[in-house]
Design brief:
By secondary structure, the chain is mainly α. The protein contains twelve helices and no strands. The protein folds into two domains: 1-169, no CATH class; 177-249. It starts with 15 loop residues before the first helix and ends with a helix.
Length: 249
C-alpha cells in the first residue's frame, strides 16, 4: 500500500522558484484524469492509482510519484496530456526542492514522459510559466549546494529530453558570472569528464559547450582572472572542454 504521509519535499519559500511552483499548481489546476496510464496489473496496484487520483497534486508524496515513474506506461513512450498536467506541478516542486522525482534517476527520466518543451502543447500562460521555471531552475545551479541531485549538464539534459531547445539554455549560461560557471563545472566534473558512460544527449550538450562562442570567453577569463586559484580552476575547465573538442578526453 502506498504511504500517505504528508509530502516532505517542499521548496524553500525564500527561493525565487517557489512562487513559480506555487503558480504552477494554479495554472495546471483541473479535474484529475480517469487513469494514470500505467500498468496496474504488475506495476502499480489499482488501489494506489485510485488513491493518487483522489489526492490533490500538491499533496502527492514523493513515494507516490516514484511509484508512478517506476510503473510501465500503457501507451508509451509518453502519457496523455491530462495525466502529465495532473502530476507536473508536483514533479516540478520535487525537483526544485533538490530531490528526485524519479527514484534516483534524476531530471532526465523525470521529464521524458511528455514533450513539455514543445511550445505547441501549451497556452501562452502555461508556456510562460514553464519557461520561467526552466530559467529559475538552471540559475539555482549557480548557488553552491542548492541543487545537487544531478550535475548542471544533467539538469540541462532533463529539459532537452523534455523537448526544450538547448540554445536558450546555452545563452543563459553565457550570462552567468564566469566564476560561478567554473565553480559549478569544477564541482560536477572534479577535474575529469569521465564521458564513457554519458548518454548521446549529454554528449551533444557537451559538444555544444565546446564551440568557440562558449569556450573562448571561458579561456579569456582563465587568463584574466586576478585570483590565481580561480584562474587555475577556469583553465582546467577550459582544458577539459578543449581536450574533448579535440578528441583527447
Amino acid at each position: 500500500m502506498t504511504q500517505t504521509s504528508a509530502p516532505s519535499t517542499r521548496v524553500d519559500p525564500a527561493l525565487p522558484i517557489a512562487s513559480i511552483v506555487a503558480e504552477a499548481y494554479a495554472v495546471f489546476d483541473g479535474p484529475p484524469p480517469k487513469t494514470l496510464d500505467v500498468c496496474t496489473a504488475c506495476c502499480m496496484s489499482l488501489d494506489t492509482e485510485r488513491e493518487m487520483l483522489r489526492t490533490a497534486s500538491r499533496d502527492l508524496t514523493q513515494h507516490q510519484i516514484w511509484e508512478w515513474y517506476n510503473s510501465a506506461l500503457f501507451n508509451g513512450p509518453t502519457v496523455p496530456k491530462d495525466v502529465w498536467t495532473f502530476l507536473l506541478p508536483r514533479v516540478l516542486e520535487i525537483i526544485a526542492s533538490n530531490e528526485d522525482a524519479h527514484n534516483g534517476l534524476g531530471p532526465v527520466a523525470s521529464f521524458d514522459r511528455f514533450p513539455h518543451g514543445d511550445r505547441s502543447q501549451w497556452t501562452d500562460r502555461e508556456w510562460d510559466l514553464l519557461t520561467r521555471y526552466r530559467v529559475a531552475l538552471i540559475d539555482m545551479c549557480k548557488v553552491p549546494d542548492l541543487l545537487t541531485c544531478d550535475t548542471l549538464l544533467g539538469y540541462i539534459e532533463g529539459f532537452v529530453a523534455g523537448g526544450f531547445d538547448l540554445e536558450p539554455i546555452v545563452a543563459q549560461l553565457k550570462t552567468w558570472p564566469k566564476a560561478d560557471l567554473v565553480a559549478r563545472l569544477t564541482s560536477d566534473w572534479g577535474g575529469h569528464l569521465g564521458i564513457y558512460w554519458w548518454s548521446p544527449q549529454a554528449l551533444a550538450i557537451l559538444n555544444r559547450l565546446c564551440r568557440d562562442d562558449f569556450l573562448d570567453p571561458l579561456v579569456a577569463y582563465a587568463f584574466d582572472e586576478p585570483d590565481q586559484t580561480k584562474g587555475e580552476m577556469a583553465l582546467r575547465v577550459s582544458e577539459l572542454l578543449l581536450d574533448h573538442a579535440q578528441g583527447r578526453a
